[in-house]
Amino acid sequence: MPIDIKEVNEKLRRIVLTGRLDIPGTEEIAIRFAKAATSAGQAVVVDLTAVSFLGSIGIRALISNAKAAQSKGARMVLFVGGNETVTKTLQTTGIDVLIPTFADATKAEQAALN
Amino acid sequence: MPVADPVSELSIDPDSSEFRLASDWLGRAGRELGIPPEQIARLDVCLNEVLANVLDHGGASARSAPIGLRLARKRDPDGADATLTVTDAGSAFDPLAVLPRSRPQTLAEAAPGGLGLVMLRANADSLRYVYAEGRNQLTFGVRWNTVHK
Question: What is the pTM of this model?
């Protein structure tokens, strides 16, 4: 399960996840994802456009890291692009209400920084 | 002479490292049985959540014997359905008896757990649970229309 961390600027970090966020995939990236989402005190956009499967364990990781970022005064948002599978799962579980979710990359970055 | 409904079966070890094997089998067997990709995807979500529940709630006995998977497809004049039955040796646990939790409205209210059942109920068109011969048997199904109007 690849995880790619991009420093957009000193205030914003983008975390790109690719593949299956099922139990093996989420366990594989859990530590790096948590560290990347909270360590720099930056706003974070989590790019889920290339995630092919999102299970409840993957959602737990999103919630946990969004909470951790919030506790450090930073904001984490989700960028889903046109990924219908992930969008549907986030809507079904109501996570899109808890963690701001965007189909547009620019809007996602703006929301993370606000 | 009636033709038997097509079926595919797999047995996996009760370990999360086997879950990918189960998903790969579902994808392959589903295609061979003529199940549409979007329906296989729904079954895959259900399968992963059910397998996670087996390990989370089944206790030591769940890890003592293989987990059985059985995929079946049926057709009728109005459409078709596919069912996947997961059997395990864990403690009796009926996920359908668990009452849905109210949705949190804020991130602070969100608690871990409980989402698997939400996803199972949202993706399955049918759900059935039986405990028999010392094994949990949970069957979830999806249905699709095959009549083109």
Answer: 0.92
